[in-house]
Amino acid sequence: MNAGYFIVIVLVSGFVAGTIHGAVNLAIVEPYLDEAIGIENQNLFTSGEAEDTPQFWVEYNSYRDWQKSGQLLAGGILGMSIGALFG
Q1: Which residue blocks in the chain are alpha helix, DSSP H?
Q2: pLDDT of 14-48, one tens digit each?
Q3: What residue ranges do the domains of the chain occupy?
Q4: Rounded Cα–Cα distance for residues 81 and 40 (Å)
Q5: Spatial distance between the Cα atoms of 27 and 31, rounded to a whole number of angstroms
Q6: What is the pTM of this model?
Q7: Which residue from 14, 21, 55, 81 has the fewest beta carbons nearer than 10 Å?
Q8: Beta carbons within 8 Å of 40's beta carbon, 6+ residues apart
Q9: What is the mean pLDDT of the chain?
Q10: Do 79 and 29 contact (CB within 8 A), yes or no?
């Protein structure tokens, strides 16, 4: 097998495996993270450090959506780098 072809196979398979890992993490872990962050937000409101306003929730939801969408890409990059390291 050609070395270049092998490297491409390793990188692509690592990226796919990492994306699957990110998707599973998104499906299984994220509900617990959302619940924990909700508790943290309620503590912020109770202590007066933040106000429970619509603007707060718009910013919060846009930031969390950004984090969740980046998780798949980050998983793919992680899988590709591990594949490159151990391929």
Answers
A1: 3-28, 30-47, 54-86
A2: 999 999 999 999 999 999 999 999 999 999 999 98
A3: 3-86
A4: 33
A5: 7
A6: 0.76
A7: 55
A8: none
A9: 92
A10: no
